[in-house]
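Morning, I've got a small favour to ask if you have a moment. I owe you a coffee for this, so here goes:
>
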Amino acid sequence: MPELRITDVIAHPLTQTLPKSTVTSWGAYTDVSIVLVEVRTDAGITGVGEALARFSPKAYAELIETSLKPRLIGKDPRDIGAHWQAMRRALSGRAGGMLIEAIAGVDIALWDILGKAAGLPIYKLLGGVGRTEVAVYAASVNWVGDAEAERELEDYLERGFNRIKVKIARPVKDACRRIEQLRRRAGDDVELYVDANWAYQLDEAVEVGRTLSANAYGWFEEPLAPENEQGYEELRRLCDVPLAAGESNYTVDQAMRLVINRTLSVLQPDVARAGGISETRRMAELARNHDVAYAPHIGMSGIICETASVHLAAAMPNFRVMESETDGSPFKTQLADLAPGALRQKNGMIDVPQRPGLGLEIDWDAVRSLRSQ
């Protein structure tokens, strides 16, 4: 194995204005951020990663460059497990928050280097199961007026999506009406899922869940706050619709309770939050061991997060379907030479990149133009 050493770690805080606001139970998102992480080596191989840092991206960049970078300089980038543990020790206390999201950006970059050094795409390094394409669903029909919601649904159908996610919120009666409205509009052959973004208390979630079950929705995503694990268990007991969650989890131990007892039918970690490829893989494997499906979350992230998720989706035996965010954001359309899945999909499927590492090249002019001010 040839010598390979890390020479620099550079964090690029980036901010974008979405072409179209994403509207959820939390409100309208118009401007969001990420941190693009660049890891350089003495062999001229550079890896890139992404940290989910929707707000205050400069704080994440400082954390990466002052607390994580010193633990990596001069080290072999291929020792990813050792580096993950060293970065985890940068802050004491329970794992989560900014630290794990920052680690995610570095970890993805290290896997990119590993793939480039080996001459293999990341999904092959993860022990691919033979997939060269993965299933995606359109995200999302926003929490908007009835007529606009129907227009968004029709647009996804016209673009060839046969799986679509719908955002819902309060009041409950309006959410139930939206669930019924879009099922009628979509017909029986389209898979529909719903995402509540923690909108409900338990009794409300039970009412919504029963409406979802009656209308054959594929899952009920994040109906309750992620900390309310007992509430999720009770909801599972009281209604039949499959439950999905996990984008709010940072580490595998935070997914453990609801996976082991099969409260969740679908686990949805976000690779740019959940400690990168290394920790997300552990979550997906935990889910597999307990007959729970893996469905990557990407949300309002960038093309690096999406592409890393595609590699994981291609490699994990229990993969079901992954999110294809259709916001048309600069983070997805401008940062690299690979188009986002929403533009590449055909009949709800996208190809897995075959070039070494992540399989994309960054447009550094675009990085400079999107740099947070």
Notes: The CA atoms of residues 132 and 176 lie 38 Å apart. The longest helix spans residues 97-118.
